[in-house]
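Q: Convert this sequence to structure tokens.
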Amino acid sequence: MLDDIHNHWKRAEAVRIKCLGVPTLDMDNVCFHLEDKSGGAIIYRHINVLILYRGRNYDPKNRPVIPVILWKPYPPIYPKLVKNVADGLTFEETKELRNRGLNSLPVMKLTRNGVYVNVGESVKEAFMTEEVVRLDCTHVGTSDCKRIGAKLRDLVPCIPILFKDEQIILGGGNKIMNKTPKFSDRS
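A:
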């Protein structure tokens, strides 16, 4: 993608980028990495559309060299996303939360290659009133469901409880978050 941006900058001063799918959950992170890796500046941002400006003194002959990866790196081993027993809860409490989540109404219905900018805010608002939230990801796919759940775990303080039948069940109400152990800041 960076090579495409630099090739486009040969002919025009700015490039329009439209983001879709899981990266739209955290657009601030996408903007930071695009500015950092390409050397340009984002001059316009609206929901999922960005305009990346190359700068006045851009020289295409002296652009940064992006190495071609001729080998495929090993996939990283991540810790288990959904634990059998959620932190600070018993097995029965976790099972009850899963059943309540499956029987509750979904907060949002997500589509494949959709724009998920407001999902984090909607989940936070839902946690104000409920302990368990369900997201309906019917046509998203299981890998994207898990990526969305992992991203929401970091953005919204919550615990992924279940991924089943393309449904995401998240726990994060006051009762659940008060039971989970807090990590102290190391200063």
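DSSP finds six helices and seven strands in the chain.
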